[in-house]
Amino acid sequence: xxSSLNKYLxxxxxxxxxxxxxxxKQTHLRTNYGRMLSGSVQGELLKxxxxxxxxxRILEIGSFTGYSSTCMALGLKEDGSIxxxxxxxxxxxxxxxxxxxxxxxxxxxxxIGDASKTLESxxxxxxxxxxxxxxxxxxxxxxxxxxxxxxxxVGGIIVADDVLWDGKVLEENPSKDAQTQGLLHFNDMxxxxxxxxxxxxxxxxxxxxxVKKSD
Length: 215
Description:
This protein has helices at residues 4-11, 18-30, 40-53, 67-75, 92-102, 115-121, 141-148, 178-192, and strands spanning 57-61, 81-86, 108-112, 129-134, 152-161, 196-201, 207-212. It has 215 residues and is α/β, with parallel strands linked by helices. It has a single domain, classed as Rossmann fold (3-Layer(aba) Sandwich), CATH 3.40.50. A seven-stranded mixed β-sheet has the order 3-2-1-4-5-7-6, with helices on both faces. Helix 2 (18-30) packs antiparallel against helix 5, helix 4 runs parallel beside helix 5 and helix 6 (115-121) runs parallel beside helix 7 (141-148).
């Protein structure tokens, strides 16, 4: 059930387009994990961050049904592009349908497969990306960060989703499950990284916005 806080945030944020509302509905109808969707408030934030930063090349790690990539693509300039990484090939049809409906299909390059392996294949793209959105396997966030960091331009932005993990990272004796432990390690690693400026905000399930200041 949607929280009263999220309802209030939605009521005081830009209204999502009919296409994004369609995609949200289709995600709930056609997948078993509708709560994984970024949603309208977070989607609008991502779109605004892309617009404000003037990002031209974006990397998305974990695309799910294409909601967040659609929002970011809508914030891109004409010649901007997104490399979208997704493990589950069963979601491809819905993603492509959504991108076509939004008129952004030509801006997004989909890479199906294990994200770490795909990122390893991008090793020659030094200082290539202006903006990165991480929303995939929570166990692997620290590895994604290490692989992505050299690919991001100085001044570029990295946004990590789900960093509060339903409050599990706040517990005095956190769960030993791999996802919680992965996020605890990632959060501490970013907090201690002097190469970046960062802020964690309690939007949805937690977002950390990171700006790369140096290599």
